Known about the structure:
There is one protein chain. By secondary structure, the protein is mainly alpha-helical. The protein contains eight helices and no strands. The two termini are 15 Å apart.
Amino acid sequence: MNNKNNGQHRVLLGFGLAFLVIFAVWVGMVANQSSFIAGYDRVIYGAIRNSNQAEYRLASLWTQAGDTIVITAISIALVLILTIFKKYDYAIFTGLVMICANGCNSIIKHVVKRQRPRIALSLNATGFSFPSGHSVGSMSLAIVLITLICLLVKQKPAKTILIALCVCFTLSIGFTRMYLHVHWPSDVTGGWLEGLTFGLLGAWILLWSEERKAAKERLWQ
């Protein structure tokens, strides 16, 4: 394994572990109803206005792109496509990141048991509030897609555009959850942190595995 790849591994692992620590601290502050979290939610909610009906309807439509059933369908389709093209390691990486991130999210929801903000009757939002499932799912999927784009897309302009679209997707989904007041801002931030943690650690494992295989192949040549 060359020095360049060693450096890439260290960066991915370092960021993954850093976000894991930040996420754990964030969970602890939310669970203990920290005054910092209360102020954080109050400041962000104070900056978000949803009185414009056209914007409200648009947000109500777009937020559905982050529904669990949509993210799950996209993830399954991605795994199947990667399997068809015999990218088995990439398929396993995709499946494991999405399953682990969303599984952990469900566990944390039922441990913390945070109640949602007051929700409009027209919005379909049930269950506990923290972390935001839409934010976890969209961020996990975004990191998975960005990893695959970096590994599979060779043209730099196309790679840049696709990565930017992935980032915009997860940020906009999270924003709609706050804009519609179906989640506290700290729920969305927690979801993003969780998705980043699982996505980066999964990318590190994938790259580490790919390099080990390449090293073994070089030994047998």
